[in-house]
Fold this sequence. Notes:
Layout: E1 6-7, E2 10-13, H1 17-25, E3 32-35, E4 52-53, H2 60-74, E5 86-88, E6 91-95, H3 100-107, E7 116-119, H4 121-127, E8 138-142, E9 146-148, H5 150-163, E10 167-169, E11 174-180, E12 183-188, E13 191-195, E14 197-200, H6 206-212, E15 221-230, E16 243-246, E17 252-256, E18 259-263, E19 268-269, H7 279-292, E20 300-310, E21 317-320, E22 327-331, H8 341-352, H9 359-364, H10 368-371
Parallel strand pairs: 1-13, 2-3, 2-14, 3-10, 6-16, 14-22
Antiparallel strand pairs: 4-9, 5-9, 6-8, 7-8, 11-12, 12-13, 15-18, 15-19, 15-20, 16-17, 17-18, 21-22
Helix pairs in contact: 1-5, 1-8, 2-8
Amino acid sequence: MTQAPQPFDVIVVGAGIAGVGAAAQLGSRQRVLVLEQESQPGYHTTGRSAAVFAESYGGATVRLLSRASRAFFTQPPAGFAADALLTPRGFLFVARDDQRAELEALASQGDMLGTGIRLSAAQACEHMPLLRRDYVADALLDHGASDIDVHALHQGYAAMLRRNGGRILCDARVTAIERHHGGWRVYSAAGMFEAPLLVNAAGAWADELAALAGVARIGLQPLRRTAALVDVPRHDGMDRWPLTLDIDEDFYFKPDAGRLLISPGDETPSEPCDAVADEMDLAIAVDRIERATTLDIRRMHSRWAGLRSFVADRSPVAGFAPDAPGFFWLAGQGGYGIQTAPALSRYAAAQLLGRGTPQEMADMGLSAAALGVERLSAL
Ligand SMILES: Cc1cc2nc3c(=O)[nH]c(=O)nc-3n(C[C@H](O)[C@H](O)[C@H](O)COP(=O)(O)OP(=O)(O)OC[C@H]3O[C@@H](n4cnc5c(N)ncnc54)[C@H](O)[C@@H]3O)c2cc1C
C-alpha cells in the first residue's frame, strides 16, 4: 500500500544556502520541509565558493542585496554562530594600462563611494606585494569587503530552521511534481509530500525542476568556475593581503590559510552536474596570475569547480511564477549567492508569507520588479 503524502505548508527543493536560508526565515508558524538530492546539504555550489563579501562586486541589484545583507552578517541573531561570520579582507580591483576605462567605470558608480579608494599603481603594490609594478596601471580597493565563514552561515540557518521545527531531508531527490488540490504534490526518493507553496532553490537544476512541475523555464545558464589552492612561499603579513581581482575578472587570487586560492574567472556553459575542475582552466589561471605577479606556481594543493547559474540580466530571480500559483523561484544567484543570502532569504520568506518587500530593503530601493520573473520576458 502506498503511504499517504505528508502535509507541509512550504516545501523547499535544494539545501544550498538559498533553500536553507529562506526556509529558516519562514519562522516557526509554518511547517517547512527542505528536500535535498545529495547526502549532505551544501554539496554543490554553496560548498565551492570563494567565500567573499564585497558590496562593490556584481550588478546594481546584487550590490543592493549585498548592502542589505551586511547587518545580518555583522549582527546575526543571538546564538546563530559561535564566531564572527565576516573577517575583513580588502577587495582589490587591478587594471592594466589597456583596462583603465573599465576601472574608471567601476569607480564612478555612486554606491562605490562609501568603501572604495582609488589607488595608484605603487599603492596597489604596497597592498599586494606580489603584483608586478610594470603590470598594474590603476587600482581600486574596496576596504569594506570581507571573507565569509560560509559553513557557519549555512549551518546557522540549518540550526535556526530546526529550532523553528523545520526539517531537512537528504537523499531526497525530487523526481516528479504535480498539481494537487490547488497546491503541489512532490515525489522524492524519500517519500511523497504536499504543500500549497513550493520553493525552487535547486541551484543549477532550477530550470529542470520547473520543467518537472510544468512551469515555464527562466533560461537559467549554469557556468562552470574553477578554483584551486596553491602552495606559495610564506610572506610576512600575507594573511592580511586583499583578494586581488583583474577588472575584467580574468583572474583572482586571495590568501587562504597559508596558501593562495586562485581562479581564472572562467564561465564555461555547462549542464547541471557535479562540476569538476578542468586542467586547461587551471593552466590558464596559473599563466594569468604569473604574468600579473612575481609568483612561480609549482604545486597545487587542491582543485575544484562549481556552477554559478545566471539568467540573462545576471540578477537573482526571487518571486512567484506568473504561470503557476504557489510556485516560488529562488534561483540565478550566480557568483553572489553567499554574500546576498541574508537579504534574499528574508526577502523570499516575506514574499512567501504574503508580507511584500521588507521595509528596510524597500527603503534601500529594492523593488519586487527587479527580482521577479516577469522582468525576464522584457529582456
Ligand atoms: C568557484 C566559485 C566561487 C564563488 N565565490 C563566491 C563568493 O565569493 N561570494 C558569493 O557570494 N558567492 C560565490 N559563489 C556563488 C555561490 O556559491 C552561489 O551563488 C550559491 O552557492 C548558490 O546557492 P544555491 O543554494 O542557489 O545553490 P546550490 O548550493 O547548488 O544548492 C542547490 C541545491 O539543490 C539541490 N537540488 C537540485 N535539484 C534537486 C532535486 N531535483 N531534488 C532535490 N534537491 C535538488 C542540489 O543538490 C543542491 O544542493 C561562487 C561560486 C563558485 C562556483
